[in-house]
Write a structure and sequence with these properties.
alpha+beta, 6-stranded antiparallel sheet, about 140 residues, about 45% strand, Immunoglobulin-like, 3-stranded antiparallel sheet
């Protein structure tokens, strides 16, 4: 009985933990020529197939606010849902409060690329972090 319980815990627990992890994307300043300019930290491989970041662009709007545009591709054969949020940070790494801090739910169709956008809440926000989370929503939403 202990052996069965141990096998169940050893096989189910890692699956449960993996479902609750967050994949992150951060910019890479002054990257090598030909490098993507961003780094993905993938802790949930399944989520990476549902929502894989393929491209990142940054520019300045309103004179002094950074804007980021992230392309996300789904390698799935059916519609998927995931959640995301952008976090903005100062040059010292301090969190800057913004509306984009809350989790947003996004639906993505098979083999589709979508664009996620965010604008820094103010000029002190100099860098960003995108977090992606697995979301299981009914297909009707």
């Amino acid at each position: 009985m202990k052996l069965i319980r141990s096998l169940i815990l050893c096989n189910i627990f890692p699956i449960m933990v993996a479902c609750n992890t967050v994949n992150s994307v951060v910019p890479v300043p002054n990257g090598r020529p030909g490098s993507p300019g961003f780094q993905q930290v993938v802790t949930n491989g399944w989520l990476n197939y549902k929502a894989n970041v393929t491209d990142v662009h940054e520019d300045i709007v309103n004179g002094d606010q950074k804007r980021v545009q992230v392309s996300v591709f789904s390698n799935q054969s059916s519609a998927q849902s995931f959640s995301y949020r952008f976090e903005w940070l100062t040059t010292g790494g301090m969190h800057v409060d913004s509306i984009g801090d809350s989790w947003q739910t996004q639906r993505i169709m098979p083999q589709e690329t979508i664009i996620l956008n965010s604008i820094a809440p103010n000029s002190t926000a100099s860098t960003w972090r995108l977090q992606l989370s697995d979301t299981n929503l009914p297909l009707s939403q």
